[in-house]
Amino acid sequence: MACPSLYRAARSSSLKFTTMKLRDRVIFSVASFLVVLTIFLVLDIETMLTGSRSFLVNYKVKNVQPSRGRHTFIQRHLQKTTNGSRENGSYGFGPKYPSGYLNNIESAGEGEKLKAKPISSSNGIDYDNPPDGAPQPQLRSTHTSSTTPTPPPDPFNDLIAVVLKIENVNLRAKQQYQHWNPNLGELLGLELRDDSSLWDRFHLQIARDWLYPPQDRDATVDLLLQHTVSQPIVKITQKEGGTQLKLIIEFADGGHALFKPMRFSREQQTLKNHFYFTDYERHNAEIAAFHLDRLLGFRRSVPVVGRTLNMTKELYALATGDLLKTFFISPDNNLCFHGKCSYYCDTSHAICGNPDLLEGSFAVFLPGKEAAPRKVWRHPWRRSYHKRRKAQWQVDEAYCDLVRDVHPYSEGRRLLDVVDMCVLDFLMGNMDRHHYETFKMFGNNSAPIHLDHGRGFGKPFHDELSILAPLYQCCVIRHSTLKTLLGYQLHSNTPNSLSNSLNRSLSADPLTPVLWQPHLDAVDRRLALVLQAVRLCVEKADDPSTVVVDDFH
């Protein structure tokens, strides 16, 4: 009886051993298969990604359908752009775009100042007679070195040819065209007298196309800014609404201005973790935006000037109510106040003098809304102002088609004006364009007013390409705007470059130097990016005149 039992036990042990051995083989085989499959998939995905990158770089935009062209443009300009510093990075525009626009930033090391450009008093733009030694287009090198001189900037001769061709075609039509550009004085039936104040002269000369006429025709704005610096202040009140502190200043002669105080030095950049809607407002950005707007020929920005106040005599002595309660002496014996607002109006973010001297920007008031009512428009490319949610234009490639179907962008000049605004905002890095205003008296076919630029000039080493969305999504720009931009680009690295012209204009302000040098360098760099965006639009268009529009403004 013992033998069968022993036989069964031995057989059971053999079966268990065979079963375990078979299980190990199956597990090993499955694991080996999974490893091989993983390696195959990784190699396949890498091959697809490499081929995709090669396609995006080499495929010509002009052979792509409109929707594909917009998608390619967004990938080139937005998705393939890093959010970090622009000092040492490239922009990924492909071989047509030279790296010469980086040569304005010459950093000698951490903590050292960047080199300033020479300033000259001349300022001329001549397409037919470019400056001596004007640079020619250069192919971009794949490897750059700090010791290798960068190639000269691209003069965009192809765009100059388009501008001149459109200008010649429309020359006769322009001569016969009667442009209607009335001012407020004409519509209100009011005439300027010899004893009219500078405030009245400025208000009554506001026209449909601009807030003030070209500088060579009238000096009212410059005289008014000088007047604003010297006028005694008789009353201050805190402006209601808004996210940060602003004061309404009333002068002895009855004029008014909006005061934005200095919060920190010119060199302080936007904090990396700050959203555009929580960033500090800069008084010098308001001043620089006015001068930049005038240099671009828009003249739609409210005149702004810098002024240094004695806080004890001109603010604390005139403050009342809740504003007065926010004044205090800091541990460093400086006079400070913080007012009341949505952001940065507390003791830890107080505005302090040195010890009681304080810089600020003074924006001249527009006419009262009773005499010249204004209409507020929601900007079509407004950001979501949400920490996680994106706006529709950021996810919809065909968003401009929707905008073109809506009044007033479906006809007239308004879409071109919005593109002008985006060019101005991009040059100064302003992402905070959520609304704009127009004067009702001029109708809907009037120029918008460029207001509120305090969040510009915050990131000198970063170019926020999404600000240009109206330009590259709609692929349209005003002829006169492009001509002005090309004129400054043609004079790059000369005293008549945009950065040097801006610096020269800002030198007349009492708070000069208004901008930190890297911000001036960024203006030239961003100018080339705007022109490259226009170039891509022209390349994919059947007719360049659909991109560069001459509306006789």
From TrEMBL:
TM regions (residue ranges): 26-43
Binding site for Mn(2+): 281, 452
Any GO molecular function: protein serine/threonine kinase activity
Domain of life: Eukaryota
Disordered as annotated region, ranges: 112-156
Keywords for the protein's UniProt record, in alphabetical order: ATP-binding, Disulfide bond, Glycoprotein, Golgi apparatus, Manganese, Membrane, Metal-binding, Nucleotide-binding, Transmembrane, Transmembrane helix
Domain FAM20 C-terminal residues, every copy: 327-543
Keyword Amino-acid biosynthesis listed: no
Cofactor(s) of this protein: Mn(2+)
Pfam families to which the protein is assigned, alphabetical: Fam20C (PF06702)
Active site per UniProt: 432
Alphabetized InterPro entries for the sequence: FAM20, FAM20_C
Main location: Golgi
GO (cellular component) term, any one: Golgi apparatus
Localization annotation: Golgi apparatus
Record: residues binding ATP: 244, 260, 281, 363-366, 437, 452
Family: Belongs to the FAM20 family.
Protein's recorded name: Extracellular serine/threonine protein CG31145-like
